Amino acid sequence: MYYSPEQLCAAFVGPQLIATGPLVEVVNEVKRHHDAHPNDMILIFDHAQSRPIEVDLRGSMEDVFERLEKQQKPPESKTKVKKPGRPKLGVVSKEVTLLPKHWEWLAQQRGGASVTLRRLVGEAMKAADPLAAQRTAQQSTYRLMTAVAGDLPNYEDAIRALFAAEEEEFINVIADWPEGLRAHIIQISAVAFDPSLVPETEESDSR
Fold first, then answer.
1. Which tens digit of pLDDT belongs to each residue from 86-143?
2. N or C: which terminal CB in the chain sees fewer CB atoms within 10 Å?
3. Are 2 and 9 in contact (CB under 8 A)?
4. CB-side exposure of 188: number of CA atoms within 13 Å?
5. Which residues of 142-176 are buried (b: 16+ CB within 10 A; e: fewer)?
6. Runs of H (alpha helix) within the chain
7. CB within 8 Å of 131: residues ≥ 6 apart
């Protein structure tokens, strides 16, 4: 599995949040916790979809980050010719055919043609399925809660409120959960209650 050092994630021991932020910072805190409490089971999840992130904590801090650095490299041969595009952003370069008037209009837009096209495609995708972002946030929150909060009071009530998009009820039933966990859940579940809150991910093209 390959990870970005800047991707946001959170680490838990049971329902207790022990670190949150960019992956490199979280791994640093997780390694310190592991060395101090080697019997604790630490789980790390990315913010976007609450998918588990596997980190080998054996050895020294340098050993951990050396292995992590290898996981950050793209799975390609050293002799492979670099192709156009911006692989760090997951951008793939392909041909687009437009009329001259379309290119002229795109050139006048903020950020240039690529940024504008990505924005227009993103808007079209949301228009085609306006609830996609909500479902994604619901599933992400559900995965996180199932993994670390399944034994907490009102867990089932919280799940029902989450999928019913009842924000006030959801916040009320998790009010007594550990503070760090509660804050993280509220953060990642925001779009589940208001799909318009989906964060902007556009990148400005370099010129």
1. 444 445 667 778 878 888 888 888 877 888 887 787 666 566 556 788 999 999 999 9
2. C
3. no
4. 27
5. bbbbeebbeebebbeebbebbeebebeebbebbee
6. 23-36, 61-72, 100-107, 112-128, 132-148, 155-163, 167-173, 179-193
7. 195
Reading the block at residue 19, the tokens are 């670190």
Q: What DSSP designation does 205 have?
A: P
Separation of alpha carbons 182 and 170, rounded Å? 11
- SS3 call for 148: helix
What are 178-193's pLDDT values in tens digits? Answer: 999 999 999 999 999 9
Dihedrals phi, psi of 198, to nearest 5 degrees: -55, 125
Q: Tokens standing for 125?
A: 């995708």
Query: Looking at per-residue confidence, does 83 or 73 come out higher?
Result: 73
- What is the rounded CA–CA span in Å between residue 185 and residue 181? 6
pLDDT at position 207 over 60: no
